[in-house]
Design a protein that fits this description.
Oligomer: single chain
Number of strands: 10
Number of domains: 1
CATH superfamily: Divalent-metal-dependent TIM barrel enzymes
CATH architecture: Alpha-Beta Barrel
Helix content: 40-55%
Order of helices and strands: HHEHEHEHEHEHEHEEEHEH
Length: about 300
């Protein structure tokens, strides 16, 4: 999927004001129980990168040690991939970097919505492989793009909906067995383009093992502000990732230079009670570049003043 390629200056507008109200509420001396509960929950957001973004290092351990120094706490890894799984697990244990999620890396080419039933069957096996890999890594989600509207006759909206749901239902027993949730991601696939569609899609499974993986930057293209998506999804949103996208120019930009409206996004996250992973999905690079990504994430997420 598209990622932003540029490296411009940092975001100029601080998001601190958007967090002030919630911070004061948590620290209010007249409500010590609430303050204690907020402190016990720990940080509201945890920073992660996609494993493929980490260019330096020849082993998972070297890569994990690097991103830990740069302030990241977790990664998401493709499945299938060329990553040494055993080495990745050992690196996780040694560094404390959490492999929080797995990405079904073949969901674009080998689709659950493909007109060919043999391809759909293969896509199901790939999804099952991602669930098994996620369990091995100790991850909690398997990110999945459910299909792509590519042909008004053979792979249209209704067909993508029905075919993908049929296959996902077949994977639910394994999801329950592994304890790994299937996280439906929204992308530029012309399938789910409105919050109410994603809500309906997730709810139709009537199963807590299926949720939403929201890309804050992707959906600007379709006209509904990211914060409105978050409010609509509520507890259905398992995780989120982001890049930088300018809806006015329709261009990918650096993190913090898009039209995501981060103060409102953070406000929406607070409103729905989201506490968890925030993962960047941009072009990979060297240590200097990853450090810049980390700093940009701190700025937009309000993690540092």
């Amino acid at each position: 999927m598209p990622t932003q390629p540029t490296r411009r200056g940092f975001l100029q507008t601080s998001v601190a004001a958007a967090l002030t109200a919630s911070a004061l509420a948590a620290a209010d001396a007249t409500r010590p129980d609430e303050a204690a509960q907020a402190a016990a929950k720990g940080p509201r957001l945890r920073k992660a990168v996609k494993y493929g973004m980490i260019k330096p290092g020849n082993t998972p351990l070297e890569k994990f040690e690097l991103i830990k120094r740069l302030g990241f706490q977790g990664v998401e890894i493709d499945s299938p991939s060329g990553v040494d799984k055993e080495a990745a697990v050992k690196a996780k244990e040694k560094t404390g970097i959490d492999i929080h999620g797995v990405i079904d890396s073949e969901h674009w080419q080998v689709r659950l919505s493909d007109p060919n039933p043999d391809v759909r069957a293969k896509a199901l096996e790939t999804l099952k492989g991602a669930l098994r890999d996620a369990k091995l890594y100790g991850a909690t989600t398997a990110l999945l793009v459910p299909g792509k509207v590519s042909d008004p006759k053979n792979e249209n909206f209704e067909q993508v909906w029905e075919r993908s749901q049929e296959q996902i239902r077949k994977a639910l027993p394994l999801a329950k067995e592994t304890g790994v949730k299937i996280a439906i991601e929204v992308v530029w696939n012309d399938f789910i383009t409105k919050p109410e569609q994603l809500v309906k899609y997730v709810d139709s499974f009537q199963d807590p093992m299926v949720g939403a993986y929201f890309d804050v930057s992707n959906m600007i293209k379709y006209g509904v502000p990211p914060a409105d998506w978050i409010r609509a999804l509520g507890k259905r949103m398992l995780k989120f990732d982001f890049k930088g996208y300018n809806g006015d120019t329709r261009q990918w930009v650096a993190i913090g230079e898009g039209t995501e409206n981060w103060p409102d996004v953070l406000k929406a996250l607070d409103e729905v009670g989201y506490r968890g992973w925030a993962t960047s999905e941009v072009n990979g690079g060297d240590e200097k570049w990853l450090k810049e990504v980390s700093e940009r994430m701190d700025r937009v997420l309000g993690l540092k003043g």
